[in-house]
Amino acid sequence: MNLTLTRRQTSTVNVGSVGIGGNNPIRIQSMTNTDTMNTVATAQQVMALADVGCELVRITASDTKSAENLYNIRNLLVQKGYDIPLIADIHFNPKAAEIAASIVQKVRINPGNYTDRPSNTVSLTEEAYNGELQRIKERLHPLIEICKRHNTAMRIGTNHGSLSQRIINRYGNTPFAMAHSAMEFVRICKTLKYESLVLSMKSSNVRIMNLATRLLVSMLDKDGLNYPIHLGVTEAGEGEDGRIRSAIGIGSLLCLGIGDTIRVSLTEDPVAEIPVAQSILQAAACRTYKAEIISCPSCGRTRYDIQRAVKEVKNRCEHLKGVKIAVMGCIVNGPGEMLDADYGYIGSLEGKVHLYRKGELAFANVEEAKAIDILLEMIDKDKKTEQ
Ligand code: SF4
Questions:
Q1: What is the CATH number of domain 13-283?
Q2: Is the pLDDT at 218 greater than 50, yes or no?
Q3: What is the mean pLDDT of residues 370-379?
Q4: Among 67, 193, 210, 219, whose CB has the most other CB atoms within 10 angstroms?
Q5: How far apart are CA 159 and CA 209, in angstroms?
Q6: 378 Cα to the center of ligand 1, angstroms
Q7: The model scores a pTM over 0.90
Q8: Given ligand 1 and candidates 294, 295, 331, 337, which is best to mutate, with the most ligand atoms within 8 Å of its CB?
Q9: Nearest to residue 160, comparing CAs of 172, 178, 145?
């Protein structure tokens, strides 16, 4: 059975030194939660994120002053030797976007509030609707020109909770409306000959996020467009709830081959988002960060302390990136159920373990206390033979 993931073919959008889409790995990004006017605290958080594997960092620019301060943050990062691309997050403030676009490598705008203010506009006639699109085009034009001049990329990031009244009146408060909200801006950018776009559909409801993203992709396909897609569940929460919501929302789309960059949003220190984004990408078979360690739940057939064994195998073997190890409870079903693992660690008799290599028994009834040492020696020897 061929389980190779076919990733949706997308264009490459360069964000400073980091490419999103195309053949680039699926990128991990996060966002600072410091005050953007606090240059040192923000730069420190960006560095902490970069140190744990974050590849792009978004910083809010809520007004023109904080947009201007992105310059100081970027300079401090350069002085410290960090060239991680920065993204300005903009809501309601085209002027801040225009300032930020000449400083950072990408701007994120929300099509629901970039040019619109909340209103109770009733349904528009076709002529009035086209007039609205013309107004958006005129408002977007200066930003696009700055982005072109500075090679700045842009994310058109739609949020379910902040659709414009124009879009809601026309399409309802629906996933379909979310996709249309982005497509209005996409088509305007296209007429302005600007293509460095990344698109996202976010909601705290994973089903809405999933459906809106799939609708967006089908609309893009219909228009012959292949911009990269950013995935994330917004307001995912904290702890286990936030991790599960993010894994389902992001992972369900990754398994369809959709997604070029991801952000896990947790109500925690943003540094905590990065390992979650990495276990999501590895679980969806998109990127590899560490050894893959699987284990059975154990049952009445288990004759050894499998919970302790799996923790120890993880502890000592997780650095072996690219290796898959199965820790199984018994030799009755264990060998058959771990067939796609490179190595197997299977409880046999009381305090004894069988070690397997590629489904074949390599060492029988090894003392549990010595089993991991022998497993590591075997992996090391195999690696040397392969080289
Ligand atoms: S592998 Fe063995 S111990 Fe583990 S769940 Fe299956 S039957 Fe039970």
A1: 3.20.20.20
A2: yes
A3: 96
A4: 67
A5: 9
A6: 24
A7: yes
A8: 337
A9: 178
